[in-house]
Design brief:
Blueprint: H1 6-13, H2 18-80, E1 89-95, E2 98-104, H3 106-114, E3 117-122, E4 125-130, H4 131-140, E5 145-147
Helix pairs in contact: 2-4
Region (Disordered): 19-64
Pfam family, one: DUF2058
Biased composition (Basic and acidic residues): 34-64
Length: 172
């Protein structure tokens, strides 16, 4: 006995005609295509959602890292702040385009002018910190360190004024 498909058996029995059989085949093919398209759409939306989630996670991680760096900088400044006291000497420095000043003692002023100490921004005020700590802070957040006087002097070979030293500790 040869095996007949269900469709052929139903056609032989007279339950369906050729027209209905073709319509059924066409409908089943159409439903398979629609199912494939729906599956592809679902996969595409899952991929898009995964991409959005990764972007959000990356943004959160960057924000968290930024907060951690700010906390580290604040901690370094508060732990290493040198009390400049109620000095009677006005020390001027630039913060961007603004000229600011701190009243310091003679010892602190000398160390600031020699580059041993630096000035850093702490919230709405300024703090005097060791230059070693200022370098560590500058690695994390360069905008926090205001003044770091460890600049190398470049002297041109044909400079007629090279023999004259300009003092960097002049009072303004």
């Amino acid at each position: 006995m040869s095996k007949l498909s269900l469709q052929e058996q139903m056609l032989k029995a007279g339950l369906v005609n050729e027209k209905k059989l073709k319509k059924a085949k066409k409908g089943s093919k159409k439903s398979r295509v629609q199912a494939r398209e729906a599956k592809a759409a679902v996969e595409e939306s899952k991929a898009a959602q995964k991409e959005r989630d990764q972007a959000l996670n990356k943004q959160r991680d960057e924000e968290k890292l930024s907060k951690e760096i700010k906390a580290q900088v604040k901690q370094l400044i508060t732990l290493n702040t040198i009390a400049h006291g109620d000095g009677d000497i006005k020390y001027n420095f630039t913060d961007g385009t603004l000229v600011k000043s701190l009243y310091v003692t003679q010892e602190v002023r000398d160390q600031l002018s020699k580059g041993i100490l630096s000035i850093a921004r702490l919230e709405d005020s300024y703090a005097v910190i060791p230059t070693v700590v200022a370098k560590k802070i500058a690695e994390r957040d360069a905008e926090t360190v205001i003044e770091n006087d460890t600049k190398e002097e470049v002297i041109e070979e044909d400079d007629p004024y090279a023999q004259y030293v300009v003092p960097d500790d002049l009072m303004w």
